Amino acid sequence: MTPATGVRTSFLERDRMVERSRANDSGPFDGGAGIGFTTPGCTAGFGVRDADTDAGYVLTAEHCGAIGSPWHVGWNTNTGTGTLVGYAVDSNDDHDTMIISTSVPDDHLYVGGQHDEVRAQVVGWTEVFPGQLLCQSGYTSAGEIGGPVCNLRVDFHYDDIEDLVEATQLDGDEAARGGDSGGPVYAVNPDGTVLAAGTTTRSAGPGFGFQDFATARDDYGNLVPATAIASTCRVSFVVSDSWGTGYAAIVTVYNDGPAINGWSLGWAFPGGQLVQGHWNGVFQQAGPAVTVTNENDNASIPTGGAVNFGFTANGSPGTPAPFTLNGTICN
After folding, report:
1. Helices (H) and strands (E) in the chain, counts
2. What are the backbone angles phi and psi of residue 227, rounded to the nearest 5°?
3. CATH number of 29-106
């Protein structure tokens, strides 16, 4: 009973709060959660959507299970029940990628232990390149060390039927553990948000093999992380060459909104890099902040069109973030 106050009072019934963690996730479904037919056997990679159809999926590893299999989280061994994420609808055996259909993919991934809600927001995806430092946030590793495995340095990209990427854990620690398969591999932005880089495939001590997100896009179409950012632009940042003291990068800006006549792209470098040379754009840099504006001959970007430019910089390659086009944050 509430006391009589003379003030009109109304009551609103809300859904009961439920616990969320890697071990007991609920929709919308996050990366880094333990998933399986019943009890966890693998790790959810990223919540993704097909940008052309808006269909939702969870990305993980193909070797975890067959097409048509049901995937659950929060399995209760006493009752034999759990929360259904969805069914595996497509996979690529050579690339070790698989997508699980779900109507509620989420834009976060777990980065804490197995039984907490510590998560990071996924704001886009990144191409991978030698020297890039990444993290993997697998379910089993989270149980053993309380969080993700980081300092994974990208070494090289195989050019064979598997097309995997190999990396090394620089501290000599275990790069991944059984049950981490399919889990998210990602780059961390200076603001704590992350970029999807791929999904875990295999490991041996500090050695680490994963499938990159760009290859998953080749496998399944225009997949993008299920970010909460609604944007009219996308940016691709690709390191085209690197050497001991610097690197070269190609930046492509895609316009998904109204036609643009005159553009300005801005970003912040993550590690003190300085632009040394550039082409197809007018560059200005102040500290880590870089602004690139159009040349006279590439000022227009039609709807569905793109423009690209390049630069060289000193220091180690790093993925800038966030990118803003004429003030709008891009995916």
Report:
1. 2, 28
2. -75, 155
3. 2.40.10.10
Instruction: Return the CATH architecture of domain 231-329.
Output: Sandwich (2.60)
Look up the pTM and report it. Answer: 0.75
**CA 262/CA 319 separation, integer angstroms:** 25
Residue 151: how many other CB atoms lie within 10 Å: 16
3-class DSSP assignment, residue 15: coil
d(CA 48, CA 292) in angstroms, rounded, equals: 30
- Contact indicator for 66, 54 with CB cutoff of 8 Å: no
Q: CA quadruple 282, 286, 290, 291: dihedral positive or negative?
A: negative
Q: Hey, which residues does 301 pair with through a beta bridge?
A: 260
Q: Which amino acid is at 107?
A: D
List the 246-255 sheet strands across, edge first: 233-243, 246-255, 306-314, 275-279
The answer to whether residues 249 and 265 touch, using CB atoms and an 8 Å cutoff, is no
For the chain, 331 residues long, the average pLDDT of each consecutive 10-residue run is 59 53 92 95 95 90 94 91 93 96 92 95 90 96 97 93 96 97 94 93 97 95 80 82 89 91 92 93 95 96 93 86 86 72
User: At 235, is the secondary structure helix, strand, or coil?
Assistant: strand
The fold of 109-215 is Thrombin, subunit H (2.40.10)
Tokens standing for residue 249: 């990068």
Q: Do 29-106 and 109-215 come out as alike in CATH topology? A: yes
